[in-house]
Amino acid sequence: MSADSASFKLTHHFLIAMPGLDDELFGRSVVYLCEHSERGAMGLIINKTSELSLRHLFDKVDLPLRREDLLACPVMQGGPVQTERGFVLHDPIHLGDDQQDKTSIYASTLTVEGGLEMTTSRDVLEAISAGAGPRRVLVTLGYASWGEGQLESELGENSWLTVPANAAIVFDTPIAQRYDQALALLGLQSWMLSPEAGHA
Questions:
Q1: Got the DSSP string for 103-129?
Q2: How many domains does the chain fold into?
Q3: pTM here?
Q4: Can you tell me the distance from the alpha carbon of 58 to that of 64, in angstroms, rounded to the nearest whole number?
């Protein structure tokens, strides 16, 4: 991996769909990138809801939901891949207080460098069910993925804008405002973007 490609790593960034990206799922989407390397990229759409609420999802997996703050939260459409599988994006939680101890307390967790954690194992749902677990969570069904060079190609076609991710937009911003708030991180508003792709 060259120094040049190493500097072009978009882990813990938002992908913000440009107006020209005319796709039912990806149009006006904001994707939190959990991984990006020379092998490809993987992320979760954070602003498209599914028809399920967290209460319904927990019913489906036979767990009570004892977190009042989460009962009405929607489950998000994380992307078109593995849509029957749950992905939980949350604040980092580690076993030790020591900053060097980065061992997650859950069985299957991806620690996003410099950012959040994404857990796919049932134990995080069990912790939330018991009224514990991460304070801030975003639960999706499915994820988005790009093969080797695919995301770079889409970026070259002006399909996406990128900006370092902000956890407050993931967890605290109303869903309908996440696209505009992500654009605001770049000092942009949606009316400034032309649907016509072009290179300066």
A1: -BSSSSEEEPTTS-EEE-SHHHHHHHH
A2: 1
A3: 0.89
A4: 6
